Amino acid sequence: MNSTDTQAVSQSAVNVLLISPHDEDHRQLQAILRHSTWQQYGARTQAEALEVLRETNIPVVICESKLPDGTWRDVLSQLSRQPSPPLLVVSSRFADERLWSEALNLGAYNVLAKPLNATEVFHVVSLACLFWKRQWQPERSLARTA
Question: Domains along the chain?
Fold first, then answer.
């Protein structure tokens, strides 16, 4: 993926779902995305997130490592059952080597340390979105590169 691809994604409309029980996380992501064309969806629990995913096509999910009704592992399991599964990015204040290793080995796309950094959010979500589009919409990606 080149920088032109990531710039195109960062300028296009992207749906991002944040799953976190913490109001500050939702406010922080909203502030980061305020001047972008990206659309933020929010859920505080895994159950709420599944409702949002039933109604909206979302390529990238950012999930707090611990939720009131489970963990990021439970969310990853639920996402894998979706027709075009969104990519999962785990967020945590304790984003240490152990979490990174476990998340990536189990199939999460990436890990973001909290508090969220705008540059990192745009970089990680842009790349995840590109990867998702190439995986689930290959005919569009091939037509664009031809």
Answer: 3-145 (3.40.50.2300)
Report the C-alpha gap between 129 and 134 in whole angstroms. Answer: 9
Query: Looking at residue 44, what DSSP letter applies?
Result: S
Query: Tokens 């979706």 map to which residue?
Result: 82
The total number of residues shown for the chain amounts to 146
**CA dist., res. 16 & res. 58, Å (int):** 6
Dihedral Cα 55, 111, 77, 26, nearest 10 deg: -40
Query: What is residue 6's predicted lDDT score, i.e. its pLDDT?
Result: 46
Q: Angle, to 10 degrees, between the axis of helix 118-136 and the axis of helix 23-33?
A: 80
Please write the tens of the pLDDT for every residue from 5-46.
445 454 578 999 999 999 999 999 999 999 999 999 999 999
Q: CA–CA separation, 48 vs 84, rounded Å?
A: 19
